[in-house]
Amino acid sequence: MPRPKSPPRPMSSKCAYVTLLTKPSYLAGVLVLDHCLRAVHSRYPLVVMITSSLPEEARLVLRKRSIRTREVKALDPPLHHTLASHDSRFADTWTKLRGFELVEYKRIVLLDCDMIVLKNMDELMAMDLPHDHIAAAHVCACNPRGIEHYPIDWRPDNCAHTTLSHPTSLPPLPTHTSPRPHTQLNSGTVVLNPSKPLAASIVHHLYTSPRVAEWKFPDQDMLSEYFKGKWRPISWYYNALRSLYNSHPTMWSEREIRCLHYIFADKPWQSRRTPRGMEKGFDVMDKWWWERFDALGESIARADPTGWKFLLSTVDNSL
Description:
By secondary structure, the chain is of the alpha/beta class. About 25% of the residues lie in helices and about 15% in strands. It has one domain: Spore Coat Polysaccharide Biosynthesis Protein SpsA, Chain A (Alpha-Beta Complex). This is Nucleotide-diphospho-sugar transferase.
């Protein structure tokens, strides 16, 4: 599959990067994500979907940074669904599916807020994508931390990334003979075309599918199932899971990374000091996040001292 080509000019003013913020503990992630998009001179804004659970102090920080927000209703399936205790952070991620309702935009790139953008990736706004399809990178099915409740077929020989021998190798297209993980996406970066009928159909599926109770990764499993046969793999570097550094060293290249994803429960803003025993390379990647936070912080501290104080209360800035 050819790479998305960069357009000679903006496809439309009605395109946006979109993320979700439901609580102050992820505010720093959102602000750094916005800072990164500006730093790489993206043509498109970051729009933050917020829910009623987000306090006014956090909203005010966003407003003073001139970050667009869109109030959405929290989405939660009525059928029984439970998460492992250390995956409780996924409880709000169903609401990411509200991105399909943002019909004021022709194209959005949905991003998790535990990411940093290292290179401009506006070409995703112009890639060829049927109206009822999405594009995303594959999951990494290696399960390097040996998390017990992860799917039993998540092992290196079943991982789509294992088939890649070079940083610019094209992602494999799923076939009927592919291992199941080849048909699964990671929802950190999702390219989509908002549509009211599509959004309604997705919500209906969420509320009626008997498989909801089985899903380990809420929105991610939902998207993999709903768009089976209708999602296009994009290169790993649009959603560079930090674990790929160790799990797939022949594929990893810092030069190629567009967007780095801080997967797992431990986020860089939870401690400026990388915990002992952390995987190789994670300390360097955490440093990348803190460098951007510090650059952003200088601006916020000058322009919005109250907001800066609130922001500092949401991170562990101690050395």
